[in-house]
Amino acid sequence: MLAGQPKYRQAAIKKRWKIETYQLIHDCHQKYNWKIDLMCRWAKIARSAYYKYFDPQRQSSQRDERDKRIEAKIIEIAQSNNSLFGTEKMTMAVNRQMPDEKPVYHKTVYRLMRINGISSQKPRYQKPKFKHTTPEKTAENKLKRNFNASKPNEKWCTDITEITAPNLPKAYLCTIFDLYDRYPVGYAISKRNDTALVQSAYKQAIKAYPNAHPLFHSDRGFQFTRAPFQNQLEKQGMIQSMSRVGCCIDNGPMEGWQGIIKEMRVVLHSQPASYDELNASICKTIDYYINEDPQKRFNGLTAGEMRREALKDNIKSCPIAPNHRIERYWQKIHEKKIKEAKKILS
């Protein structure tokens, strides 16, 4: 089990084994009156190490005391969100909630999570099936996958997704999403996937930011291609942009955010008993994302904290990190096309 694992993982696993072994020996001695020295020989551990672990007068080192404080915070966070966070998110959350401590390293968090048997939950949800519709009036893709924004309300994306729960009607979520700070400026939930749903989310966003004139990007769903909706955008001073046919990556951040929210909802609120509870669980999940979910791109700040800082004119530059794997992929495609062109010419 330890073979091939990094050293810090091996140390965490061994530490957990020792703690579990010490506790097992202690329980067996209390319950069955088995001899401690005999059990220590069976477990191949030093008897002195066992007594040292349970010695009430043993003085902890500064590192042990710090580990206890970090461990308590990790357990508190994991219990509050049903172990939603993995090592990276947990590290950002601990540093965010323990500002008086020295910065906590992710290997320390991993070690303490492993010792306590804490790991991230990875739920799976059923992917929805959508019917193709004929668009009434389309727009050019003016966003062109440039997902960076220099300030709030410069670029908004929107989309609709369905959220399901066992034995309950589907809930449709329409969200309008700011690319600057990944903040949902407006959203609406309904049992029906119709134009009223989009209108409700749009009105909420405009009510919150009446002077916003962003680039407004969406896919080619019938709700966004209707002439009355496009006239609304034009009247508000927004420029409409649409993804190309069959190119969901053109609206990648929005698609990714919807997947994150659906996964978070399953972990935080796994078994809603009614449609109203499902509706409430979606709202609570979005609120948790805004206020409690730290973002690596924002150096551990949440989307809500980034928005509050920006509204105070403290606008931070947090560009999206380049994806070198995708860049290498497209570079190979480009080189292949050049070779083929040279063969044809020759």
| Total number of domains | 2
- Note poorly predicted spans: none
Strand content: 5-15%
What kind of sheet is the major sheet?
5 strands, mixed
Shape: elongated
- CA(first)-CA(last) distance: 57 Å
CATH topology of the largest domain: Nucleotidyltransferase, domain 5
Widest β-sheet, arrangement of strands: 3-2-1-4-5
User: How many β strands by DSSP?
Assistant: 5
- Looking at the overall shape, the CATH architecture of the largest domain is 2-Layer Sandwich
Average pLDDT figure: 89
Radius of gyration: 26 Å
Protein name: Transposase InsK for insertion sequence
GO molecular function: nucleic acid binding
GO biological process, one term: DNA integration
Function: Involved in the transposition of the insertion sequence.
Topology of this structure?
Blueprint: H1 7-32, H2 36-43, H3 47-53, H4 62-80, H5 87-97, H6 106-115, E1 155-163, E2 171-178, E3 183-190, H7 195-208, E4 215-218, H8 222-225, H9 227-236, E5 239-242, H10 252-268, H11 275-292, H12 303-311, H13 324-345
Parallel strand pairs: 1-4, 4-5
Antiparallel strand pairs: 1-2, 2-3
Helix pairs in contact: 1-2, 1-6, 4-5, 4-6, 5-6, 10-11
Explain this structure.
The protein is α/β, with parallel strands linked by helices and 346 residues long. The chain folds into 2 domains: 109 residues, no CATH class; 157 residues, Ribonuclease H-like superfamily/Ribonuclease H (Nucleotidyltransferase, domain 5, 2-Layer Sandwich). It is built from 13 helices and 5 strands. It has a 5-stranded mixed sheet with strand order 3-2-1-4-5, with helices on both faces. β2 and β3 form a beta hairpin. α1 packs parallel to α6, α4 packs across α5 and α10 crosses α11. The longest helix is centred in the first third of the chain and has 26 residues. The model has no long low-confidence stretch (mean pLDDT 89).
